[in-house]
Give the backbone structure.
Amino acid sequence: MIPISKPTIEEEEINAVLKVLRSGKLTQGKIVSELEQNFAKYCGTQHGATCINGTAALHTALYSIGINPEDEVITTPFTFAATANSILMMRALPVFVDIDPITFNIDPTKIEEAITKKTKAILVVNLYGQPAEFDEINSIAKKNNLIVIEDAAQSVGAEYKNKKSGNLADISCFSFYATKNIMCGEGGMITTNNKNYYEKTLSFRNHGQSNKLKYYYADIGYNYRMTDILASIALTQLKKIENFIKERQMIAQRYTKELKDIKGIITPITIIDRAHVFHQYTIRVTKDFKLKRDKLKNYLYKKGIQSNIYYPQPLYGFNHLKVGKKQKNYPITEIATRECLSLPIYSRLNTDKINYIINQIRNV
Ligand SMILES: *Cc1c(COP(=O)(O)O)cnc(C)c1O
């Protein structure tokens, strides 16, 4: 079976972990600091703070910007549940806005109609690895006095007008979950240029303790710290990131070249001012294709190819998130949930396998 994703674990990662184990210092320490510094530098931001996972990073970011109960946070319904769940964790209310049909990211032209007196922030997801329309989003935010958060879990290394993901909003959150473009099994990171947000982040992830005085607590907090063991893997991966991205982009290019002319298949489009890092390579299977989307998925499975649907349900369809359905309808989200299918993509996926996948789709 060709998996849809596969982490690249090589001698360097294994040796990095062994080195930490041999040091006997396993908790948050020097390696975590090194990862934070290198990652922030990579993104071009002043601060980087690790977290135990991407969901914790989102929760922490929402805390540090000062989200209060009953505040409204505008976001997309076409994303992983953690995006909207993190808003509920602050007892705030997610408000869903429909997406753009090309990028699958939040549609900036529909944001303003969702803003109310209670709106505090816009939580933007760079879905599949392509940044959203940040110039428009940031200017709407500025005009309405809102804070912008970037859910960059899928977009490490992506660019918008030559600026890196992680540096496109007031505060950004990453995930190092095993399937993400750089990973350490479970892990997360927050980047920001705002010193105040950064300091709140450090405290929140460490039981709400004062950053200066141990066992003094400014507020409630969590234990969201990362360990040096995990940081050593992420740090090693960060050194290889340019190579990882290039490989993903080349695979995407090859898929698009061979699939774009098939009737009923719409291949992904990278907007001209953006660098897409292809966390997912996602096609749309329309009614003009010979098989329905779900049938194509089963067909590929029988041929030994794993594909997947990100995401089969809009988030407002789930009971605990129904409160966030504020617009009359979400036509683009509905189409996307019906037509999207993601194909295998990971940095060491070889040409033979790519050709095999392409041929199976062409031969339907
Ligand atoms: C993976 C992911 C998250 C959550 O990250 P975890 O590390 O799994 O907690 C959040 N948002 C998006 C868009 C993701 O893809």
Summary: DSSP finds eleven helices and 13 strands in the chain. The mean pLDDT is 97. The first helix runs from residue 11 to 23. The CA atoms of residues 75 and 96 lie 5 Å apart.
